[in-house]
Amino acid sequence: MILTMHGLIRMVDSAELLAAELVSNAVRHTKGPAALRVRLSAAVLRIGAWDADPEPPEPPKELDPLGETEQGRGLALVRASADLWGWQPLARRGNRGKYVWFELAAT
Fold first, then answer.
1. Minimal CA–CA distance to 15: which of 42, 49, 66?
2. Which pLDDT score, from 0 to 100, does residue 65 have?
3. Which residue of 75, 81, 95, 102 shows the fewest CB atoms closer than 10 Å?
4. Beta carbons of 98 and 51 less than 8 angstroms apart
């Protein structure tokens, strides 16, 4: 709804799919809380998921061209679809974790 309100309806499907991948990874592969952050600046949408596990995400694999793989496609999909993606370790008020994010150009 936020993207639609800003006239970015063409980004909705990609943003929802990739955000769901980040959140599902955070929930499936870590123990503890997770959160999603959405930021729209001049021409870039950045969506990221925070989780309490400080371990880096597994490197994305190549997407299976036949789509037969049931698991392990999340970050590969993010890598293939986003304009930019990455991760960073976080430490705040004694809590450790990581932030995995992607960017989509809003132009």
1. 49
2. 58
3. 95
4. yes
Average predicted confidence (pLDDT) for the chain: 86
Q: Which CATH class is domain 2-105?
A: alpha beta
Domain limits, the chain: 2-105
- Please state, in angstroms and rounded to a whole number, the distance separating the CA atoms of residues 73 and 79: 10
Task: Please report, rounded to a whole number, the percentage of residues in the chain having pLDDT higher than 90.
Answer: 48
- Alpha carbon 33 to chain centroid distance? 16
The C-alpha atoms of residue 53 and residue 38 are separated, in whole angstroms, by 20
Residues in the chain: 107
Separation of alpha carbons 13 and 24, rounded Å: 16
Report yes or no: 56 and 88 within 8 Å, Cβ to Cβ: no
